[in-house]
Specification:
Helix 10 runs parallel beside helix 11, helix 14 packs parallel to helix 16 and helix 16 packs parallel to helix 18. Helix 14 links the parallel strand 14 and strand 15. This protein has two domains: 139 residues, 3-Layer(aba) Sandwich (Rossmann fold); 277 residues, Aldolase class I (TIM Barrel), CATH 3.20.20. Helix content is 44%, strand content 15%. It is of the alpha/beta class and 481 residues long. It is globular and about 65 Å long.
C-alpha cells in the first residue's frame, strides 16, 4: 500500500479527482486531498502526511503555481510527483522540470493506479502507457492506452474525498454528478477535439454510464451528504434520447430531487425536453457564444442557425424549463457592435439567465493554434492571478477590448433590464474601473442564487468564500522558491 496526496489548486469539486481516488482506494492505497486556502498551513500538513506520491491536476493558468508546490513538497517529503490534467496532457514537457517524476495524459484511472502500485513495491513505472517523463534531459512520451469504453467497470467516484475533509463541499446544497465522458462536436475553442485525437480508438470517445449504474452512484453519494438540488455537469447530458428515456423516470422515482443540466440547444427535441420537464429539470444551460451564425461556424466551429437557437429556447420555455445561455465576448476580430448584438440576441430570446465571459485562448485548442500562427497571442501567456478567472481578463487585446470588457460587466443587468441597454452602451465608453467590477460581482451573485435556488444568506456566504479562496488565500499560500 502507498500513501497518496492530491493537491488541488482551485476550489471546485473535481469529478476526475474523485474517480482517480476511487481507483486508488480500490487497490488498497490511502488517499487524502489538500486544498490550500481551505487548509491551514497546507505545506506543513502535506509534510506531516509524508505521501509516497503527490498528484497535482492542473490547468494552463496553474502551471507555475503547481511547480512551486511540487518543488516544496518534494524537498520536504521525497514524494514522487505526478502531474495530470488538461494542460500536461497537451504539454507534457512540464515533465522536464526536476521536481516532476511523471506526467499522466488523458483519462488516467488505470495508469495512476498502476503507477502507485509500482511505487508502493519500489518498482520502475516508466514503461506504463499514457505517461511522459524526462530521461537524460529529453522528453519521453509513451502512447496513450485505448480510451475506456465501459464506464460501469469503474468504482463509484469517491465523493468522500471532498465531503469528509471540507465542510464547504459537504454543506453546499447542490451536489454534482457526471453521467458521461466526451463530446462529439469539434468547437475550435474547446479541448475535446484535441483530446479525442490523442486516443487510438477515438470512435469510443462518447460514453455514458448505464442508467442503473448511475442511479446507484447518486444514491451512494447521497448517503454521505444531503442535497437540495442535483447538478449534472456533462457537456451534453441530453445527447442520447434512449438513455434519457431509461434514466430520467428512474431518477425521479428513486432520487426525486430537482436538477439542472447542459444541452446543445440545436439538438433538443420535443421528446427530450418533455422527459426533462416531467422528471425534475428546472434549468437547462446551453452555449450560445455569439449572435452571428456565420462567425460561429467559421471561427468557432459551431454550425447552428439562430432559428435553431430560438426554437430550442422556445421549446424549453414551453415546457416550463428556464434557459441559461453561455456567451463569449472579445472573440478574435469581433468589436463592440458584435458584442452588443450578442446581448440583444439574448434579450430577444428572453433567456432567463446569462453568463458572459471574456475570451481565453486555451493552449491545445484549434483556435489557439490559429491565433498563434497569426501572431495574435503569445505561445504561453504569463499566468498572473487575473487569469485565474476568465471573467476578469482576456489576453486578446483589440481596439474595442476596453468597451467589450465593460459590456461584460453589465451583461447580466442589461439582460434582466433591457430598457437599460442605451445607458449601458454609453457607460461602456468609460474607462474600465472597480465600480463596474463590483456591479458585475453583485449582479452575477444574485443571478447565481436564482439559477441555483440558493437563499440570500447562501449566496453571500458562498460567494465571499469563493472570493477569499481564489484571490486572497490562494496567493498567500503558494510556497516561495
Amino acid at each position: 500500500m502507498a500513501r497518496v496526496a492530491f493537491l488541488q489548486l482551485n476550489f471546485y469539486e473535481l469529478h476526475g479527482l474523485e474517480s482517480l481516488s476511487a481507483a486508488l482506494k480500490a487497490r488498497g492505497h490511502e488517499v487524502r486531498l489538500f486544498i490550500p486556502g481551505y487548509e491551514r498551513k497546507a505545506l506543513r500538513a502535506l509534510a506531516d502526511y509524508r505521501p509516497d506520491v503527490l498528484g497535482l491536476g492542473l490547468t494552463t493558468v496553474e502551471r507555475d503555481e503547481a511547480l512551486q508546490w511540487a518543488r516544496a513538497v518534494k524537498e520536504r517529503t521525497g514524494a514522487k510527483v505526478v502531474f495530470g490534467g488538461i494542460d500536461p496532457t497537451f504539454f507534457p514537457d512540464i515533465a522536464l522540470d526536476p521536481a516532476v517524476d511523471a506526467v499522466l495524459r488523458g483519462e488516467a484511472e488505470q495508469t495512476l493506479a498502476d503507477l502507485v502500485d509500482r511505487v508502493g513495491r519500489g518498482e520502475d513505472f516508466h514503461d506504463l502507457a499514457g505517461i511522459a517523463y524526462a530521461r537524460d534531459g529529453q522528453l519521453v512520451t509513451n502512447p496513450l492506452p485505448p480510451v475506456l469504453h465501459d464506464l460501469d467497470t469503474l468504482p463509484f467516484p469517491d465523493k468522500s474525498l471532498y465531503m469528509s475533509s471540507y465542510r464547504y463541499f459537504r454543506d453546499y446544497p447542490i451536489k454534482f454528478f457526471m453521467a458521461s465522458r466526451g463530446c462529439p462536436h469539434g468547437c475550435s475553442y474547446c479541448a475535446n477535439r484535441g483530446l479525442r485525437a490523442l486516443y487510438p480508438n477515438p470512435g469510443d470517445y462518447i460514453r455514458f454510464k448505464s442508467p442503473g449504474y448511475f442511479i446507484e452512484e447518486i444514491k451512494a453519494a447521497l448517503k454521505l451528504t444531503t442535497a437540495r438540488v442535483i447538478g449534472f455537469n456533462d457537456d451534453l447530458f441530453t445527447h442520447r434520447a434512449k438513455w434519457l428515456r431509461e434514466f430520467l423516470p428512474r431518477f425521479k422515482a428513486e432520487v426525486g430531487l430537482p436538477f439542472f443540466c447542459c444541452a446543445r440547444i440545436d439538438t433538443l427535441t420535443e421528446e427530450k425536453v418533455r422527459l426533462l420537464a416531467e422528471n425534475g429539470c428546472y434549468t437547462c444551460w446551453y452555449g450560445l457564444e455569439g449572435a452571428d451564425p456565420a462567425y460561429r461556424e467559421l471561427m468557432l466551429g459551431r454550425k447552428m442557425s439562430n432559428d435553431q437557437i430560438r426554437e430550442g429556447v422556445e421549446l424549453l420555455h414551453r415546457h416550463g424549463i428556464l434557459a441559461q445561455s453561455y456567451n463569449i465576448l472579445n472573440l478574435p476580430g469581433e468589436g463592440f457592435p458584435a458584442a452588443l448584438e450578442t446581448l440583444r440576441f439574448n434579450q430577444e430570446l428572453k433567456n432567463d439567465f446569462v453568463v458572459a465571459s471574456l475570451f481565453q485562448p486555451f493552449p491545445g485548442t484549434e483556435l489557439f493554434a490559429k491565433l498563434l500562427a497569426e501572431g495574435k497571442i503569445e505561445e504561453r501567456p504569463h499566468a498572473s492571478r487575473t487569469t485565474v478567472s476568465y471573467f476578469a481578463f482576456s489576453p486578446v487585446r483589440q481596439p474595442d477590448t476596453p468597451r467589450v470588457s465593460n459590456l461584460q460587466k453589465f451583461f447580466v443587468l442589461a439582460q434582466r433590464r433591457p430598457w437599460l441597454t442605451g445607458l449601458v452602451k454609453r457607460l461602456c465608453a468609460l474607462p474600465p474601473n472597480p465600480l463596474f467590477d463590483i456591479l458585475f460581482l453583485v449582479s452575477f451573485a444574485v443571478q447565481y442564487g436564482r439559477s441555483h435556488r440558493l437563499s440570500a444568506r447562501e449566496v453571500v456566504s458562498y460567494n465571499l468564500k469563493h472570493l477569499f479562496t481564489t484571490y486572497i488565500a490562494r496567493g498567500r499560500s503558494v510556497p516561495r522558491d
